[in-house]
Amino acid sequence: MDGDAVALGHIEQGLRIVASVAIANETYFCDLDAEGGDADFGKSLATGFRAILNEFDHIDRSDIGTFLLKVGMIFSAHVGGTSGPVWGTAFMRAGNSSKGKKSLTLSNLAQMGNNAIQGIMARGGASAGDKTMLDALIPAVAKIEEFSRNDTADFGEALRAASRAARASVEQTRQWPAKRGRQSYSSERTIGTLDPGIVAIALMLEALVAQLIVVTES
Description:
By secondary structure, the chain is mostly helical. The chain has helices at residues 8-24, 26-34, 41-55, 64-78, 83-96, 106-124, 134-148, 155-172, 196-217; strands at residues 6-7, 103-104. It has a single domain, classed as Serine Threonine Protein Phosphatase 5, Tetratricopeptide repeat (Alpha Horseshoe), CATH 1.25.40.340. 48% of the residues are buried.
C-alpha cells in the first residue's frame, strides 16, 4: 500500500478481511444482539458477506466505485431485515462517491465514509447517539478526515487512528440505551450491554490494521 494512495487490489483485500471478521464472529454477534434484539445480527452479517465472497471473482472491477456498488447490491439482495438495506446502502453510497476511480486518496476515503454514513442515516433512520454502528463509524471517519488534511499523513496512520476511535466507542456507548431497531423495544434493558454493530465495526477496523496495513507496510 502506497503511503498516499489505495488501489482496487487493496479494496479487494480489505473486503475479504472484513468478510472474514463477520463470518468468524457470527455466533458472537448473535449473542450480543440477543441481549436486547432478536439475535440475528451475526447471521445476517455473515450471510451477506458469504454471498459477496461466493460471487467475488465475478464482480465487475472496472473501477473502485463499480466494484463497491456491486458489492452493496449483492449484500442487499441476500439479506433482509435491517442489516441488508443498511449495509448494502453503505457500500453503494461509498461506491457512488468513487465512480471511475482507480485509486483513492485519504480525502477520497473520508468522502466515501461520510457518504456511507449519510446513506445509513437515511436508510435506517438512525443518527449519532442512538447506539448503533454509526457511533463507531462517525468517529472513525472523522479521524480519517482529520488525517486527510495533513499532507504528511498516510493510510496506515489514518486507519490506526480510526480503529482506535471505533474501539473507544465500544465502551463509551455501553451505558447508553438503544434508540433504533429491534433493540429499541427494550431500550432500558440495553443499558450496560454492547451494541453488536459498534463491536463489528471496531473488530473490522482492527483486523484491517493487523492484516492489511501491517502486511503491506512490512
